[in-house]
Amino acid sequence: MTLARTGTEARRQLSWTRTDWGLVVAALGLSLVGAMLVWSATRGTSGNSYLVRHLLNTAVGVGLGLAVMRIDFRTIRAWAPWVYLASLLGLVAVLSPLGSTINGSRSWVQLPGFSIQPAELAKVALCIGLAMILAERGERDHPPPQRDVALAVGLAAVPILLVLAQPDLGSAVVLVMISLGVVAVSGASRWWLVGAAVGMVAAVVAAWTTPLLSDYQRDRLLAFADPTIDPQGIGYQVSQVRLAIGSGGWWGQGVGEGTQTQGGFIPFQQTDFVFSVAGEELGFAGAAGLLLVSGFVVLRAFLIARDAQDSFGRLVATGVGCWLLFQTVQNVGMNLGMLPVTGLPLPFVSYGGSSMFACWVAVGLLGNVHLVNLRKLF
To answer: Per residue in 229-242, pLDDT tens?
Structure first.
């Protein structure tokens, strides 16, 4: 009994001392910088309310991440089907009378006192669900059977199509990138990747050529090429974002001093365009620093995937890395006018509870994979 208790205590102590604190501190730093940027963008109209909610979301997210780190890895694998089913139920609920439409996308479920975005849960579900299927019989030097790959692609297609039906093109593309990354690293035939890429292109073309996209979303894509197309709507917003970032110079105008930000010229700046606050008020140096920390989190995800001792952990970490990498590139790209506006938040930084919780659960998954090797020592 004493030896068993001693072993348990040793494993618990090892978990805390060998936790990837660099990853945790980087993610926490992004969240706290995000709190400052959100406060600066909203203090003129809402006082400290957004700041308080962002900090509360961060605290809950950190708690979720640390809890996930300490769940037995076999339990996470066993829960994967249930997490996947829960995400599907949420996506179906969005399309029911429970869903609400914001900015042309029916992406939210309103509950008493708060709302949730099930597409964020779907990102977590795909990371662990696809890993469970493709790691069942496939190992590092042995690709998964074709039947398992076909099953994984089919299961990925269901939430992707449900998200497209909202329609939320940005989140759908993130789910596609997660799926492509996990399938590629699993060792599956490249023809599966070619087929998936063709399917993604076909879905985007179908969304563009059919009434699936709302007029608002169509204008957001068109404004990427020519902001003058909708000068009073999204075109105006895109122009103001570019002006804000360009006016920041090397060192910025100072927190709370940005002309465009404090003038309230950029709608939804605390969510989709929070990077423009960094560009204007922190300047090139501050915005570049933010990107370096985000890059560190993504790099840690891929390094953890590389060092994973089993296929399940390797594929989970790969999925998380693809998710955070693509979403960061897309958000920053649309702020800089290099990519179309899709409404994706900047991970850990943008205001939003669902996104914050999902990102911190992703950190928890990475931390769990990181600890698996160390736990095997005891």
So the answer is: 665 566 677 788 88
**Residues forming beta bridges with residue 111, ordered by sequence position:** 114
Please identify which residue in the block is written with the tokens 């790691």: 135
* pLDDT grade for 44, boundaries at 50, 70 and 90: confident
270 pLDDT more than 70 = yes
- Overall pTM > 0.85: yes
One DSSP character per residue, 321-360 reads HHHHHHHHHHHHHHHTTSS----PPPTTTSS-HHHHHHHH
Going by their DSSP bridges, the two strands 105-111 and 114-116 should be labelled as antiparallel
Q: How far is CA 242 from the centre of its chain?
A: 23
Amino acid at 271: T
Contact 6, 345 (CB under 8 A): no
Q: Tell me the pLDDT of the chain averaged across its residues.
A: 85
> What is the DSSP pairing of strand 105-111 with strand 99-102?
antiparallel
What 153-161 contacts at long range (C-beta under 8 Å, 24+ apart), as own/partner pairs, is 153/179, 153/183, 153/192, 153/195, 153/196, 155/84, 155/129, 155/130, 156/126, 156/130, 157/199, 158/88, 159/87, 159/88, 159/91, 159/119, 159/122, 159/125, 159/126, 160/203
Q: What are phi and psi of 341, to 5 degrees?
A: -75, 120
Residue 40 token pair:
């600066």
In this model, does residue 91 exceed pLDDT 70? yes
User: Six-digit token pair at 229?
Assistant: 């197309």
How far is Cα 333 from Cα 329, in angstroms, rounded to an integer? Answer: 6
